[in-house]
TrEMBL record:
PROSITE patterns: ABC_TM1 (PS50928). It comes from Actinokineospora bangkokensis. Signal peptide: none annotated. The keyword Cell membrane applies. Belongs to the binding-protein-dependent transport system permease family. GO terms for cellular component: plasma membrane. GO terms for biological process: cellular response to sulfur starvation; transmembrane transport. This is ABC transporter permease.
Length: 291
């Protein structure tokens, strides 16, 4: 009796289905592993915060220092509820945070724009880098309060000196990161794009900037952090309506719970902003993997 052989097409279909099944299982495994890692990291961070709160509460209950020096977490929470509903000096904490974030946003956008533009030119034109690099390094070494008084003399006590202070604080890290990223682009990529007929602007837009994006975004993270940490200094001049102004005003009257509340709000919102920048970095440069 003749033996019936399976068709080659059937074998191929079976092999393709097996490969697809293995790929699906592999994907499900990686997703589960990723979710497990995320859950583990979140659990560790929550546990760390809980331990910190327990230590803080224990020190407050031990009364090593008076409440005016170290208020308890409960007192800070009560102050948060009061500033959230009734406000502090006429403005709620959300309104004050919005004012400060607006200043940080404007200063950061201006600083990042100038930093990316200048850093790109520094990376592409060696003569410009030789001339401007000492100035950028000089500004980066200055603390914000060092030139705040000069900005007040030039622009008065309205919004301009605050925004310009944050702008000057933000742009040096971006300029340095952009210049270093542009000069570090693989020359073979540029030559390949030029061989395919790309002009100078096409090469910059499709090769140099995408290849430099991870380092540029790292500079943006640093710049936004510096700008946000400088907001308290910026609001020392007619900035009582911001979150930094609330901290400074509370410090004058020894309202420690309000000071701690303001610092916590600044820190948490800064952490949120940094997380959003990291998400942008993962979208723009997925080949770099997880940060």
């Amino acid at each position: 009796m003749a033996r019936v052989r399976p068709r080659s097409g059937t074998r191929r279909e079976g092999g393709s289905a097996q490969v697809a099944s293995c790929a699906i299982e592999r994907t499900e495994f990686l997703v589960a592993q990723r979710l497990s890692g995320v859950a583990r990291d979140v659990g560790v961070r929550v546990a760390a915060v809980a331990v910190l709160l327990i230590i803080w509460e224990g020190l407050a209950l031990a009364a090593f220092w008076p409440p005016v020096v170290l208020p308890s977490p409960g007192q800070v929470w009560d102050q948060f509820v009061v500033t959230l509903t009734d406000g502090y000096a006429g403005s709620t904490v959300v309104e004050r945070l919005g004012v400060s974030l607006r200043r940080v946003g404007l200063g950061s956008v201006y600083g990042i724009g100038i930093g990316v533009g200048l850093g790109l030119v520094m990376g592409l034109v060696p003569l410009v880098r030789t001339i401007t690099e000492p100035l950028v390094t000089f500004l980066r070494a200055l603390p914000p309060l060092a030139y705040l008084s000069l900005l007040v003399i030039w622009f008065g006590i309205d919004e301009e000196p605050k925004v310009y202070l944050l702008m000057v604080a933000a742009f040096p890290p971006v300029a340095v990161a952009t210049a270093a990223a542009v000069t570090g682009v693989n020359r073979q990529y540029v030559e390949a794009a030029q061989a395919l007929g790309g002009n100078r602007w096409h090469v910059i837009g499709t090769v140099i900037l995408p290849a430099s994006a991870p380092e540029i975004i790292t500079g943006v993270r640093i710049a936004v952090g510096i700008a946000y940490s400088s907001v308290v200094a910026a609001e020392t001049v007619n900035g009582a309506d911001g979150i930094g102004g609330m901290v400074l005003n509370a410090q004058r009257y020894n309202q420690t719970s309000t000071v701690i509340l303001g610092l916590i709000v600044i820190g948490l919102t800064g952490l949120l902003i940094d997380t959003l920048i990291l998400l942008v970095q993962r979208v723009l440069s997925p080949w770099r993997g997880l940060v």
